[in-house]
Amino acid sequence: MKKPIKKPDTLALAKDVAAAADDIQAIDLKILDMRKLSSFTDFFIIASGNSDRQVEAIAHSIIDQLKKKGRSPIGVEGLGRSQWVLVDFGDVVAHIFYHQLRNFYALDKLWSDAKRVRVPKQRNKK
């Protein structure tokens, strides 16, 4: 008898990603539940930084902390340019923006129908 394949808890992964971003004081940190709106991911994490350096530090914090928990991203885009870094874990995708670029692309508004998930231990509110 085959054992059923256990799907990882994507909400827990999303919260871990958000917590790693929060550790570097990400601004306006949000978790969007995409499960009813999208077939390509379960959750978006959207965060901002005040500088290219902070954007890159947030991305590295997410990558490093999740690797310690045995999760490596399947893709990372934007490192080195650091205006918009995307860290893709498949079912969870983190978008880290330089704050002015975030306003331009407005993913929060584009996906305004997505349910918001409470971010654990959020330090910064905008």
Largest sheet: 6 strands, mixed
**How would you name the oligomeric state of the polypeptide chains in this document?**
single chain
Q: Helical amount among residues, as a percent range?
A: 25-40%
Low-pLDDT residue spans: none
Strand content: 25-35%
CATH topology: Beta Polymerase, domain 2
The shape is globular
Overall domain count: 1
Whole-number mean pLDDT: 89
CATH classification class: Alpha Beta
Describe this structure in words.
The protein starts with 9 loop residues before the first helix and ends in a 9-residue tail after the last strand. The chain is of the alpha+beta class and 126 residues long. It has helices spanning 10-22, 52-68, 99-105, 107-110, and strands at residues 27-33, 43-49, 75-77, 84-88, 92-98, 115-117. Strands 3-4-5-2-1-6 form a six-stranded mixed sheet. A hairpin with a 3-residue loop joins strand 4 and strand 5. Helix content is 33%, strand content 25%. It has a single domain (10-107), classed as Beta Polymerase, domain 2 (2-Layer Sandwich).
Which descriptors apply to this entry?
alpha+beta, Beta Polymerase, domain 2, 6-stranded mixed beta sheet
Strands, helices and their partners?
Layout: H1 10-22, E1 27-33, E2 43-49, H2 52-68, E3 75-77, E4 84-88, E5 92-98, H3 99-105, H4 107-110, E6 115-117
Parallel strand pairs: 2-5
Antiparallel strand pairs: 1-2, 1-6, 3-4, 4-5
